[in-house]
Amino acid sequence: QVQLVESGGGLVQAGGSLRLSCAASGRTFSSVDMAWFRQVPGKEREVVAAIGWSGTRHYANSVKDRFTVSRDNAKNTVNLQMNSLKPEDTAVYYCAAKLIGDSGWDYWGQGTQVTVSS
User: Fold this and answer.
1) How confident is the model at residue 103 (pLDDT cuts 50, 70, 90)?
2) Residues in Cβ contact with 74 at an 8 Å cutoff, skipping those fewer than 6 apart
């Protein structure tokens, strides 16, 4: 089992920055792949950024060069630094975890709202 708790969402003007954090507990964090997803009403949840247990990173095209995902295995946290925010980044952001070898994202946080005003 992995428990995830997000923090850091809020309201920001377009062009601004926010940093989301996700604290994990319950399993050896270094053996877990992590990701950030987001969802807006009426749309499917989409992956924003992922970071594997080895540190390999992947980003959605829509956030490349603006968002940076990082992890601190000593503190059991994963962060998402979001710069140059746009109104279309407005969504509920979720932290997710996947055990090594699993095909799907097994564990989810409760979500944190990010609102970008124009």
Assistant:
1) confident
2) none
The two three-digit tokens of residue 45, written as one number: 């949840």
What tokens does 20 get?
């989301």
| Partner residues linked to 10 by β-bridges | 114
Longest dimension (CA), the chain: 41
Which sign does the torsion angle of CA 20, 25, 31, 35 carry?
A: negative
The residue that leads in pLDDT, 32 or 29, is: 32
pLDDT at 1: 82
Decide if 67 contacts 83 (C-beta within 8 A): yes
Separation of alpha carbons 4 and 94, rounded Å: 9
Residue 62 has pLDDT above 90, yes or no: yes
Amino acid at 105: W
Rounded to whole angstroms, the Cα distance separating 79 from 8 reads 10
